[in-house]
């Protein structure tokens, strides 16, 4: 099927490349001319394992094309996926400007029946809004469906090609059948619901996962007080099939382009509908507090923060990505530099992205040991597997007294680290 994907961010590019891989003829559209020029040469603007290979293969096979003009390519397509950004506004609501602009352009140029697919995470009711925008300029037949994406950064290609479920929200049989045809090559559970329910499934899923994280972080904080180990507690809880082991990893809180934005947006959706979503408010509050705990622990163990050399390992919001959006690590660094600390840092992939969004005062290194040398405290802020394999005996020698090690991701064995001599603090692993 001839398909257009508008937006070449994480979701758009992965969806476009993977839709080509499962047999469709795809054109990815973006208004960013430089990005499209680079993509045409096979250069991927993001670090995402496996994506580059799929893009190159599909481009070589002629199944994946790129364009800067939706208008030029619209006629041939049967379905247009909208996968543009819906960033968080200052008030926590989702900013729908980019979605609205694409809808307007579709309305002005569409000539026959097409299915417009909302893949961006949008508030309930946006499907209707997009329908109205298109109908202002086009009176013919078309359908707007919701097909939320659940892919995670770092394993996006696999998540797209082997999803737990495919959610299709359509209010007409014609649109639903076309969507089922698109996804026919993917033999995974498909659920067809109304547009509104599909929109809600995405928010509810992300909010639930964020709730799991904030919940285990609260348990971790109690574990610290009573002397229990949250890693053992999470393992014990996760063995109950009704709970499951995933998203029970305590740490410095969730970040990224989705959870903070979507949880805030759902809170706003509830608020504007006159509903007080108490649980969700607490989830947000706990997540903010969790980042600050690192600062509290440093203050306690170093006596003061001002002028103290502190090394932060990890800048990405999680491992296997170069994405620093809403990263807890970046947030912690900003707070520490604000308090006058002298920060050195290392990340295997995300340093360049972090440099773009951070003011001066932070020293970036290409080698973890160089970054650590001379610091009084080391904070592990991202769960990169390579941080687990570092030589901690050597690190102990590189650190200055009091040799504090704050393991914000519970990557290391507390007993081993304490045996080496570190003032080790994990998250919910019992008091020092
Ligand atoms: C998330 C959703 O998982 C995905 O379905 C949706 O499409 C987009 O948002 P992503 O943001 O890529 O994906 O990352 P994810 O792996 O879900 O992690 C989100 C954040 O939660 C990270 O900061 C991670 O470090 C944190 N996290 C995750 C925890 O702190 N503990 C956990 O147990 C799991």
Low confidence ranges: none
Strand line-up in the sheet with most strands: 3-2-1-4-5-6
What's the alpha carbon Rg, rounded to whole Å? Answer: 23 Å
Helix proportion of residues, in percent?
A: 40-55%
Q: Cα distance, first to last residue? A: 60 Å
CATH architecture of the largest domain: 3-Layer(aba) Sandwich
Main beta sheet strand tally, sense and closure:
6 strands, parallel
* Class derived from helix and strand content: alpha/beta
The count of domains is 2
Shape: elongated
Mean pLDDT: 95
CATH class identity of the largest domain: Alpha Beta
Q: What ligands can be seen in this structure? A: uridine-5'-diphosphate-xylopyranose
So, the CATH homologous superfamily of the largest domain? NAD(P)-binding Rossmann-like Domain
Instruction: Kindly state the number of beta strands.
Output: 14
Distinct helical segment count: 18
**CATH-derived topology of the largest domain:** Rossmann fold
* Percent of sequence in beta strands: 5-15%
Describe the protein.
The chain has 432 residues and is an alpha/beta fold. The protein has 2 domains: 2-193, NAD(P)-binding Rossmann-like Domain (Rossmann fold, 3-Layer(aba) Sandwich), CATH 3.40.50; 226-425, NAD(P)-binding Rossmann-like Domain (Rossmann fold, 3-Layer(aba) Sandwich). Helices cover 45% and strands 13% of the residues. It has 18 helices and 14 strands. It has helices at residues 10-21, 33-40, 51-60, 70-73, 97-109, 126-137, 156-161, 173-182, 195-226, 230-238, 259-272, 278-302, 328-338, 351-357, 368-372, 385-388, 392-398, 414-420, and strands spanning 2-6, 25-29, 64-67, 79-82, 115-118, 143-146, 166-169, 190-193, 309-313, 342-346, 362-364, 377-380, 404-407, 423-425. The strands form 3 sheets. A 6-stranded parallel beta sheet has the order 3-2-1-4-5-6, with helices on both faces. Strand 7 (166-169), helix 8 and strand 8 (190-193) form a beta-alpha-beta unit. The protein is elongated, with a radius of gyration of 23 Å. The mean pLDDT is 95. Bound molecules: uridine-5'-diphosphate-xylopyranose. Uridine-5'-diphosphate-xylopyranose (UDX) is lined by residues 149-153, 206, 209, 213, 247-249, 251, 254-256, 258-259, 317-318.
